[in-house]
């Protein structure tokens, strides 16, 4: 759409939300603009028909499973029959005009992508946070609308715009728990949904590996509970954490369990979910960027690479090989050709390296240890499986650290010119 303001004499826009569930909608055109419109219409669960000789690969992917009906030809009069809403999004102004004229005669609202002045409806810049929908009309300037929308969504996500109706539990209201994966540590790596949940919390039960700077931005009335589990040091028992989640939720509070990485990757998230379910407390899981993949990636190390490895395995190293409580099949891991990623394995690294070599892994296999991943203190130590114990001691590696075993470690990104 052009950015020319529409003559005010034509009337201001009347904002309204269309409920298109199971109602037929016709989109004429198969390019990028049509694709964006179809994506939003499918989210509204409309029955979408696309009329176009060709469509983008992304649109074609929607046709296969039946989400979209594709009429593979140019637009013809009568294509809007039975439609509740229409979009004219071809690159031919004459076709768009014909679609708009048919829509006008049939009293069907039509968004014409190339000419706002000739459209009977304007598509706002929209964004969603849970059940909240933000729509902005920019007075004829789409970029202005997008900028305001993004600012509003950012404010709602980080809490600078207070959604008090969403945050306030009210007297007698049911509480809930959200298990949020905070990612490897950098607050910029938490998901949008995770950040939103934190901003709306009444109580945050946080690990020391969770993004700590998010806590400093919370309002003073939000209770923050330290549930850190320090390696070989002080820690809050899991049973106590479970009890706190249930206790605060039953008191009508919105509780966020903020964890490092992903709740279900060595994070005991399932134990917390089960405790809430048994207590009848509603619980939501918000996945996070696991350090098993994210931290190597930040160090320029892919866990897979075409033609080099077809598998990767993530292992908890908190107990060494040979320990009666270990559930890891170390002989099988020693025979693997692919990538092995070890979490919580700094102190046990010598025993793990020895076990892998004993069961067949070449001691010359490249290894990278990434300490304090995603933080300003991040550093990478490159060595081999055989030399790993010495490198950890000489480099003074302490938790948190992720180490990666495999040929992917030897890959180097091309030099920038």
Automatic annotation (TrEMBL):
<feature type="domain" description="Tetrapyrrole methylase">
    <location>
        <begin position="177"/>
        <end position="388"/>
    </location>
</feature>
<dbReference type="GO" id="GO:0051266">
    <property type="term" value="F:sirohydrochlorin ferrochelatase activity"/>
</dbReference>
<feature type="active site" description="Proton donor">
    <location>
        <position position="229"/>
    </location>
</feature>
<keyword id="KW-0169">Cobalamin biosynthesis</keyword>
<keyword id="KW-0456">Lyase</keyword>
<keyword id="KW-0808">Transferase</keyword>
<keyword id="KW-0520">NAD</keyword>
<dbReference type="InterPro" id="IPR012409">
    <property type="entry name" value="Sirohaem_synth"/>
</dbReference>
<keyword id="KW-0511">Multifunctional enzyme</keyword>
<dbReference type="InterPro" id="IPR000878">
    <property type="entry name" value="4pyrrol_Mease"/>
</dbReference>
<dbReference type="InterPro" id="IPR014776">
    <property type="entry name" value="4pyrrole_Mease_sub2"/>
</dbReference>
<dbReference type="GO" id="GO:0032259">
    <property type="term" value="P:methylation"/>
</dbReference>
<dbReference type="GO" id="GO:0051287">
    <property type="term" value="F:NAD binding"/>
</dbReference>
<keyword id="KW-0627">Porphyrin biosynthesis</keyword>
<dbReference type="Pfam" id="PF00590">
    <property type="entry name" value="TP_methylase"/>
</dbReference>
<dbReference type="GO" id="GO:0009236">
    <property type="term" value="P:cobalamin biosynthetic process"/>
</dbReference>
<dbReference type="GO" id="GO:0004851">
    <property type="term" value="F:uroporphyrin-III C-methyltransferase activity"/>
</dbReference>
<comment type="pathway">
    <text>Porphyrin-containing compound metabolism; siroheme biosynthesis; sirohydrochlorin from precorrin-2: step 1/1.</text>
</comment>
<protein>
    <submittedName>
        <fullName>Uroporphyrinogen-III C-methyltransferase</fullName>
    </submittedName>
</protein>
<dbReference type="InterPro" id="IPR036291">
    <property type="entry name" value="NAD(P)-bd_dom_sf"/>
</dbReference>
<dbReference type="GO" id="GO:0043115">
    <property type="term" value="F:precorrin-2 dehydrogenase activity"/>
</dbReference>
<dbReference type="InterPro" id="IPR035996">
    <property type="entry name" value="4pyrrol_Methylase_sf"/>
</dbReference>
<dbReference type="InterPro" id="IPR006366">
    <property type="entry name" value="CobA/CysG_C"/>
</dbReference>
<keyword id="KW-0560">Oxidoreductase</keyword>
<dbReference type="InterPro" id="IPR006367">
    <property type="entry name" value="Sirohaem_synthase_N"/>
</dbReference>
<dbReference type="InterPro" id="IPR014777">
    <property type="entry name" value="4pyrrole_Mease_sub1"/>
</dbReference>
<dbReference type="InterPro" id="IPR050161">
    <property type="entry name" value="Siro_Cobalamin_biosynth"/>
</dbReference>
<dbReference type="Pfam" id="PF13241">
    <property type="entry name" value="NAD_binding_7"/>
</dbReference>
<keyword id="KW-0949">S-adenosyl-L-methionine</keyword>
<feature type="active site" description="Proton acceptor">
    <location>
        <position position="207"/>
    </location>
</feature>
<keyword id="KW-0489">Methyltransferase</keyword>
<dbReference type="GO" id="GO:0019354">
    <property type="term" value="P:siroheme biosynthetic process"/>
</dbReference>
């Amino acid at each position: 759409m052009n950015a020319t303001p529409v003559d005010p004499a034509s009337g201001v826009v009347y904002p309204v939300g269309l409920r298109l569930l199971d109602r037929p909608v016709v989109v004429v055109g198969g390019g990028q603009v049509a694709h964006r419109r179809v994506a939003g219409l499918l989210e509204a669960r409309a029955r979408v028909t696309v009329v176009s000789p060709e469509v983008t690969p992304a649109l074609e992917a929607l046709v296969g499973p039946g989400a979209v009906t594709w009429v593979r030809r140019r637009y013809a009069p009568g294509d809007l029959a039975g439609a509740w809403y229409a979009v004219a999004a071809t690159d031919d102004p004459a076709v768009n005009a014909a679609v708009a004229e048919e829509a006008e005669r049939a009293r069907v609202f039509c968004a014409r992508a190339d000419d706002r002045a000739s459209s009977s409806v304007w598509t706002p810049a929209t964004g969603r946070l849970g059940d909240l929908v933000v729509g902005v009309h920019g007075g004829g300037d789409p970029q202005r609308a997008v900028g305001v929308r993004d600012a509003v969504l950012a404010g709602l996500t980080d809490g600078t715009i207070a959604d008090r109706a969403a945050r306030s539990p009210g007297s007698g209201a049911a509480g809930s728990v959200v298990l949020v994966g905070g990612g490897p540590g950098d607050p910029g790596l938490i998901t949008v949904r995770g950040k939103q949940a934190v901003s709306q919390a009444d109580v945050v039960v946080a690990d020391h590996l969770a993004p700590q700077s998010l806590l400093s931005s919370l309002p003073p009335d939000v209770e923050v509970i330290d549930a850190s589990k320090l390696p070989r040091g002080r820690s809050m028992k899991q049973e106590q954490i479970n009890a706190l989640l249930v206790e605060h939720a039953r008191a009508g509070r919105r509780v966020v369990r903020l964890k490092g990485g992903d709740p279900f990757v060595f994070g005991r998230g399932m134990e917390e979910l089960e405790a809430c379910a048994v207590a009848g407390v509603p619980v939501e899981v918000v996945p996070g960027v696991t350090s098993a993949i994210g931290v190597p990636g930040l160090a320029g190390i892919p866990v897979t690479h075409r033609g080099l490895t077809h598998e990767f395995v993530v292992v908890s190293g908190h107990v060494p090989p040979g320990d009666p409580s270990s559930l890891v099949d170390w002989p099988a891991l020693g025979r693997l050709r692919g990538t092995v990623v070890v979490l919580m394995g700094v102190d046990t690294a010598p025993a793990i390296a020895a076990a892998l070599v004993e069961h067949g892994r070449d001691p010359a296999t490249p290894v990278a240890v990434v300490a304090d991943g995603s933080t300003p203190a991040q550093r990478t130590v490159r060595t081999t499986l055989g030399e790993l114990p010495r490198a950890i001691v000489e480099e003074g590696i302490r938790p948190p650290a992720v180490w990666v075993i495999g040929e992917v470690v030897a890959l180097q990104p091309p030099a920038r010119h």
